[in-house]
Amino acid sequence: MTLERISQQSGSISRRYSYDDGDVVVADFGTADVAVDVLEDVAIVIVEDGDDALQTEIELPTDGAEVLINNGVLTITEGR
Questions:
Q1: Residue 25 neighbours by CB distance under 10 Å
Q2: 0.85 exceeded by the pTM?
């Protein structure tokens, strides 16, 4: 899972937190409309902001991850 791919989205603020039992990546896309779809070990994130639409694919760890989107905030939790 790469934080850099999320950080390339215009206006996003993203952070990675490492804990003993796994990592958490959080990205806040602000007022943009954000959707996420998970297909096996890839999260497809679509960000629509006005006339712009950007799609990013994020590889997830093979041991599983939880992917949530809430009010424009994407959270990916791995290893728990």
A1: 21
A2: no
